[in-house]
C-alpha cells in the first residue's frame, strides 16, 4: 500500500520539485498540497507560477490548495509531510506535526544541527536515520523530524565522502558559484544580478561549514557526533545561472593518493549506505567524473542522474594542502533539496520507520 504524503509550501520552486517527484511516485500518494492563505482554495494549476523545465504533472492540476493546518493533516492520516517552508514557519509547525505522530522531511534550516535530528544525504550517512529512535525518546513524540541539508552542503559532502573513506580528509576549502533558483522565485531582483555577481549569501557559509562536519560524522547510538577531525571553510557567491550550483573544492588528504586513485574512488562510490535497497530516486552513479578540461558546466551537466548525481571535473593535485582540488556541480533544487527529500522518505519506508 502506498504511503499518504503531503507538501507544505507547495507553490515555490522547491515545492514544485516535490510536486513533480511525488505526483507519480511508485511508493507515495500525494494527498494534500498546502500553501499560504492567499493561495488557499485555489486549484494548484491556477495558484502556481510553474517554472520547472518539465510540464506540471496532470495529477497536480486539479489538486486543491489548503491553508497549512496541522489538525487537517492528522485527520487525513498523512504518513509523511514534506516541508518547503520559511525557517520561522518550519520552526513552529514541524514539532507540532511530530507530536501528532507524523514524520516530517524538511528542507528548512532550523534544527539541522541538533544532535538527535538526522541531517541526511542518504548515500553518505543513511545510518544516521536510526537517531529517530533517540529523538522520539528525547522529545516524547511518536513522529519524527528529518532534515535535508543545505543545497551547497549536499553537493559538497557527496563528493567528499569517497575521499574520506579512501584516504581520510583534514582541511576543506570551498568556493561556490550558486544558481539564482537557490534564492527562490523572488529572491534576487534582476537589476541586482544582471551583468553582476553577488559575493555574499546570508548564512550560507556558516551552514556549509557546520552541516558538512555533521553529515560526515558518526551516529554512536545516542547522538550524532560531529566530525571534529575535519575543518571546513567556505566562501559563497550568487551568479547569473538559473539552476545548478558549481563548487571549487580544495581538500587535504591524510594519505597520499594519485589523481587516478582519487578518480577511481569517486567512480566506484555507489552510495554503499543505500546500495541494493532499490530506492526509486537513487541515481545509478551518485558521482560522475568528467575528463574534459571545461566540465562540469551547469547547462550541460545539472540533470545527470535525473538531477540526483553530482558531476566532478578538473581533478588536480593540490600542493598547498597536500591533497586534491576539483570542481563539482549539482542540481540545487533536486539533489540539493526536493530530490534528496524524496530519497530520505524512500529510505524511511525501506527501514520501516513509516
TrEMBL record:
Keywords from the UniProt entry: Amino-acid biosynthesis, Diaminopimelate biosynthesis, Lysine biosynthesis, Methionine biosynthesis, NADP, Oxidoreductase, Threonine biosynthesis
The enzyme's E.C. designation: 1.2.1.11
Annotated active site: 151, 245
Residues reported in the UniProt entry to bind NADP(+): 11-14, 38-39, 181-182, 332-333
Superkingdom, natural source: Archaea
Domain Semialdehyde dehydrogenase NAD-binding: start-end pairs: 4-132
Gene Ontology molecular function, alphabetical: aspartate-semialdehyde dehydrogenase activity; NAD binding; NADP binding; protein dimerization activity
Gene3D superfamilies in alphabetical order: Dihydrodipicolinate Reductase, domain 2 (3.30.360.10), NAD(P)-binding Rossmann-like Domain (3.40.50.720)
Pathway in which the depicted protein is active: Amino-acid biosynthesis; L-threonine biosynthesis; L-threonine from L-aspartate: step 2/5; Amino-acid biosynthesis; L-methionine biosynthesis via de novo pathway; L-homoserine from L-aspartate: step 2/3; Amino-acid biosynthesis; L-lysine biosynthesis via DAP pathway; (S)-tetrahydrodipicolinate from L-aspartate: step 2/4
Keyword ATP-binding among record annotations: no
Binding site for substrate: 178, 204, 238
Gene Ontology biological process terms from the UniProt entry: 'de novo' L-methionine biosynthetic process; diaminopimelate biosynthetic process; lysine biosynthetic process via diaminopimelate; threonine biosynthetic process
PANTHER family (UniProt xref): ASPARTATE-SEMIALDEHYDE DEHYDROGENASE (PTHR46718:SF1)
Record protein name field: Aspartate-semialdehyde dehydrogenase
Source species of the chain: Ignisphaera aggregans
